[in-house]
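Morning - LARABZUK inputs below, output right after.
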Amino acid sequence: MSTVLDDIIVGVREDLGDRMRELPLGAVRDAATQRPAALDAFAALGGLDAPRRELKVIAEVKRRSPSKGQLADIVDPARLARDYADGGASVISVLTERRRFSGSLADFDAVRSAVEIPLLRKDFMVDEYQFHEARAHGADLVLLIAAALDDVQLKDFLELTHELGMNALVETHTEEEVDRGLAAGARILGVNVRNLKTLDVDRSVFGRLAGRIPSGPIIVAESGVRGSDDVAEYAGLGANAVLVGEALVTHGSPRERIADFQRRGAVAIAERLNRRS
Ligand SMILES: O=C(O)c1ccccc1NCC(=O)[C@H](O)[C@H](O)COP(=O)(O)O
């Protein structure tokens, strides 16, 4: 039986086919080489600092989702992105998937023109073309979902990402995927607590999986943040960063909210480091 992820990818491949007919791979590759170098998202998320004392926020531009339907109209993604950057977001994630998330590369372009912090192109990356395309639009970070890729694809796409000067957020949902991400050489490892088969959110998954990750990679807690208590919980369990969509796009003051998440996260990290010493 096909999963939600399988169904999303069928649509992604169809849309990709249309774009490839409009702009062939050679042309998109050339466009990628014309861009200024990618910003260093790894450094922005804490880099090699040890221990990482700050809680970084990846703030997402997310209009709708398969699990919740419509979340926010976001008529002006550039304005939202400026709010995120002013609030202290380290990276902005822009969903570019059209059918289920109502995202687009036009949204991405609008955000790219508005802010000078690293941008994550959040999509379902299954073909080499999308990586050149991401870079051609000014992406600094791309998403690699371990559940959507086999070991060879994961490694090859990670290499291609690095060759293009970008970083990758390698997203995992299970112990096995964490091990595969580490084996592929992920430097930024996400634990997404939203089950892609049932779409249920189970925050307890984060602690279980984060506990397997050795020191080194940046650990990102993805999904399920409702407020600063959840951020503090993730940070206390090892998160260096949180990726937040719904709780920001549905909030009246995302700027204040991000600052609050950073404060609460930093306190929880300090407590975790104190417990360890
Ligand atoms: O959000 C969904 O319903 C969803 C369904 C299927 C695949 C991916 C999905 N979301 C992508 C994400 O990873 C989230 O947008 C991101 O982690 C932020 O989550 P949240 O803060 O819970 O909006």
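Note: The CA atoms of residues 76 and 110 lie 8 Å apart.

O.
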